[in-house]
């Protein structure tokens, strides 16, 4: 039976989570303070590269100091693992120790962990630790790191290269370039950024000596993965010896997926002291200690036929790993390279991928994890192709889009796009954005001394390939339904989305569906949340588990109502004989003494082996003041294909938020290190710019869905899409305006007012000679 309109799939149900959060009743990790919990601080390196000796003897005698751990104290612990390797060219990464021993390799590298009765006593102990530094040459930025004679981050990694591999068919690509009518080429920088979530990382670790058992309370994106890595790879203890609890999480964006040094050190401290310990990062520690995102440099070329057809694409990509390999670090450039062909029919493709060590904070997944970088490269290159052949950006896209009749389509990198109508999304975005009327708007702006530009970005991403996710759906004694699942919301609205899936089957209002997450004792397995996989995998599991429970409830009710299960239907929290008024409530079913407890729950596991491929078009229109370089986004349109919309309200929030992150990267965000000393220059929000509400446009967003064929719900992942199309759309719009007025064909992200002003004035200088 169809669910009530206001509850079911496809409806804009208000977020269940919001009432408590808005009223200040949210419970985040830092809100939790066990009685007499000790406080922890990390001593971090002020140098990008240095040898050091440490003496903590005096600090250990200070009042209130309970424990100081240095590298020698944790030498029996395992290293933080990198979970990615190449099948064809396996590599061996350097160790990522829990505390750096003898040598540090980036500003913020950890050398000691202090535990004291108060945070002030911990700070005093940090100051009292004696460290003698012997600075070494440092290198930042991949271009500098691969230069001959550059300082070595790791002595056994020649040229600072972890791996140097090729993707695609080099011979076929070279042959196509040899026959090309023209070649377009562009050099692209994806700048380094930080996650900037509202809630900085924090954790509390408690130890039960009677059971020899640890409980770690931490805001993460997946309790089970975190527990498993810490226990199996670092602490060398059975997983049943640790419980991980995840309360409310104030944003993650990929960065809270990973195990961090503090969590392992807290486990050691809690176990050794037999007391609860608490650590909470300040914002500068977020910049110095949390994995960062993006940071790669790509040279991309396209071989063109005379009519504008793309013949081949060749790329050279260098991804910055930082000083150590984070959990998925090397996957980001390598996996992202597989999406470089975008939505286009490109028969020959080759990409050289190098991963490079630098004296900087490790780099890992950040909203989109390689796919935004790839989309930025291909969409900037497509506009360069249009300029090369004097074609319009929309015409060259339509010329080269993969057509619906060609789907499923296997790209030159082996990705299989199952569904979509890429030209239709482009057309609709241009209609909403009044593309044909743009010249009039540009002319009016010019009268006011301003320059207008308009840009397109047609994107595709792969997501939903995290693996299996299991859901358990049970009937509670009061007739409510509880969903237990291993995904982890950090603001996405999972409690609401999963409740709608249950409502679709049972007709229960969302307040009668309770979602349990983030507790390894209560929930048996879970992959956590990342890669926009929660609904394509977890949502399917919830739907199937709900169906299983529904069938079991029909079987129980059939006995009580003396009817056939096939004649029963579920609605409004009751099981009813179709066409009659005879029914049993869920609560009565739960209380029946004859009901087998195993029949009061359903369980299902699902993994989308082929993933999903959300896609769409972003259109951005900007206004540039050439006198100041200030850019204003005056029009922004998004047309997305997510297969099927579960909740339009939640979806719009995800897309708007992602687009704002992309806009931030396009216009202002960048982590900056000193070129010669490796010092972190952007260590606070005083130095690292973030977009404010006033920097965002009034988004016009709509969906044009083509159902996905790789999962039963027909959905495509939506959590990262906004961050993928936005960067190239905004920068293409800026370059469009600069090209129309000054024939300036390139600007790097972030396109700050200073960079725009310099580009304009350099043009004036050259033309005044």
The protein's oligomeric status is single chain
Tell me, what's the shape? Answer: globular
Q: What is the CATH homology-level superfamily of the domain at 418-459 and 613-769?
A: Aldehyde oxidase/xanthine dehydrogenase, molybdopterin binding domain
End-to-end separation in angstroms reads 77 Å
Strand proportion: 15-25%
The computed structural class is alpha+beta
Report on the structure:
It comes from Bradyrhizobium barranii subsp. apii. The structure is a single chain. The model is unreliable at 1-5 (pLDDT under 50). Helices cover 29% and strands 24% of the residues. A hairpin with a 4-residue loop joins strand 9 and strand 10. It has a 7-stranded mixed β-sheet with strand order 3-5-1-12-9-10-11, sandwiched between helices. The radius of gyration is 28 Å and the shape is globular. It starts with 17 loop residues before the first helix and ends with a helix. The protein is an alpha+beta fold.
Helix/strand layout:
Layout: H1 18-22, E1 38-44, E2 50-55, H2 57-60, E3 65-70, E4 103-104, E5 110-116, H3 119-128, E6 130-135, H4 142-145, E7 161-168, H5 170-178, E8 182-193, E9 202-208, E10 213-218, H6 223-235, E11 242-245, H7 261-273, E12 277-280, H8 283-289, E13 293-304, E14 310-322, H9 331-337, E15 348-357, H10 371-389, H11 393-400, E16 409-410, E17 416-417, H12 422-432, H13 438-447, E18 451-460, E19 469-475, E20 481-485, H14 494-506, E21 513-516, H15 534-561, E22 568-571, E23 574-577, E24 583-585, H16 586-591, E25 601-606, E26 615-624, E27 631-641, H17 648-667, E28 699-703, H18 721-742, H19 753-768
Parallel strand pairs: 1-12, 10-11, 14-15, 20-21, 27-28
Antiparallel strand pairs: 1-5, 2-4, 2-6, 3-5, 7-15, 8-13, 9-10, 9-12, 13-14, 16-17, 18-26, 19-20, 19-25, 22-23, 23-24, 26-27
């Amino acid at each position: 039976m169809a669910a009530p309109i206001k509850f079911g799939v496809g409806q804009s149900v208000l977020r269940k989570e919001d009432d408590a959060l808005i009223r200040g009743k949210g419970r985040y990790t830092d809100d939790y303070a066990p009685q007499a919990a000790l406080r922890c601080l990390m001593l971090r390196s002020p140098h990008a590269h240095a040898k050091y000796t440490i003496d903590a003897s005096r600090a250990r005698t200070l009042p209130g100091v309970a424990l100081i751990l240095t590298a020698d104290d944790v030498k029996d612990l395992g290293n933080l693992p990198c979970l990615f390797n190449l099948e064809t060219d396996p590599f061996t990464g350097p160790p990522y120790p829990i505390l750096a021993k003898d040598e540090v390799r980036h500003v913020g590298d950890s050398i000691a962990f202090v535990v004291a009765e108060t945070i002030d006593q911990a700070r005093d102990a940090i100051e009292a630790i004696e460290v003698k530094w012997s600075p070494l040459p440092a290198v930042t930025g991949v271009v500098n790191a691969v230069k001959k004679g550059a300082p070595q981050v790791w002595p056994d990694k020649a040229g600072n290269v972890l791996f140097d591999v090729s993707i695609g068919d080099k011979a076929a690509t070279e042959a196509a370039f040899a026959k090309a009518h023209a070649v377009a080429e562009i050099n692209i920088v994806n700048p380094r950024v930080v996650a900037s979530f509202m809630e900085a990382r924090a954790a509390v670790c408690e130890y039960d000596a009677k059971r020899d058992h640890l409980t770690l309370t931490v805001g993460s994106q997946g309790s089970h993965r975190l527990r498993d890595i810490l226990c199996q790879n670092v602490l060398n203890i059975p997983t049943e010896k640790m419980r991980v609890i995840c309360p409310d999480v104030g944003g993650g964006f990929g960065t809270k997926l990973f195990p961090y040094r503090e969590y392992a050190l807290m486990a050691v401290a809690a176990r050794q002291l037999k007391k609860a310990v608490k650590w909470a990062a300040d914002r500068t520690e977020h910049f110095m200690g949390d994995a960062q995102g993006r940071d790669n440099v790509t040279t991309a070329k396209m071989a063109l036929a005379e009519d504008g057809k793309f013949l081949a694409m060749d790329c050279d990509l260098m991804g910055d790993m930082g000083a150590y390999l984070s959990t998925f670090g090397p996957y980001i450039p390598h996996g992202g390279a597989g999406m470089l062909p975008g939505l286009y029919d490109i028969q020959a493709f080759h990409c050289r991928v190098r991963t490079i060590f630098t004296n900087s904070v490790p780099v890992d997944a950040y909203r989109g994890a390689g796919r935004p970088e790839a989309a930025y490269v291909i969409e900037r290159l497509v506009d360069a192709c249009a300029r090369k052949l004097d074609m319009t950006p929309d015409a060259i896209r339509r010329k080269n889009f993969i057509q619906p009749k060609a789907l499923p389509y296997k790209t030159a990198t082996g990705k299989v796009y199952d569904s979509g109508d890429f030209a239709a999304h482009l057309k609709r975005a241009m209609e909403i954005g009044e593309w044909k009327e743009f010249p009039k708007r540009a002319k009016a702006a010019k009268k006011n001394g301003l320059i207008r530009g308009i840009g397109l970005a047609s994107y595709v991403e792969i997501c939903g390939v995290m693996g299996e996710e299991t859901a358990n759906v049970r009937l509670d004694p009061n007739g409510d339904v509880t969903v237990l699942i291993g995904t982890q919301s950090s603001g996405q609205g999972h409690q609401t989305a999963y409740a709608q899936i249950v409502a679709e089957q049972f007709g229960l209002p969302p307040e009668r569906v309770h979602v349990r997450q983030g507790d390894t004792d209560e929930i048996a397995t879970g992959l956590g949340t990342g890669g926009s996989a929660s609904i394509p995998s977890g949502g399917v599991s919830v739907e199937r588990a709900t169906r299983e429970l529904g069938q079991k409830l029909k079987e129980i009710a059939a006995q009580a109502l003396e009817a056939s299960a096939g004649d029963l239907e579920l609605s409004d929290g009751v099981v009813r004989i179709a066409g009659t008024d005879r029914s049993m409530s869920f609560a009565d079913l739960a209380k029946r003494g004859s009901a087998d407890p195993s029949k009061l729950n359903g369980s299902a596991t699902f993994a989308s082996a082929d993933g999903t491929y959300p896609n769409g078009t972003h259109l951005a229109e900007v206004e540039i003041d050439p006198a100041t370089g200030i850019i204003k986004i005056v029009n922004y349109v998004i047309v997305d294909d997510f297969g099927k919309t579960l909740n339009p309200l939640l979806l719009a929030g995800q897309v708007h938020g992602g687009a704002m992150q992309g806009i931030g990267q396009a216009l202002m965000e960048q982590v900056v290190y000193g070129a010669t000393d490796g010092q972190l220059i952007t260590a606070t929000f005083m130095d690292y710019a973030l977009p404010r509400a006033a920097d965002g446009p009034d988004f016009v967003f709509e969906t044009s869905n083509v159902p996905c064929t790789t999962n039963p719900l027909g959905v495509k992942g939506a959590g990262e899409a906004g961050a993928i199309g936005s960067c190239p759309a905004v920068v293409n719009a800026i370059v469009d305006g600069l090209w129309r007025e000054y024939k300036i064909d390139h600007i790097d992200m972030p396109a700050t007012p200073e960079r725009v002003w310099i580009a304009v004035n350099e043009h004036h200088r050259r033309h005044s000679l």
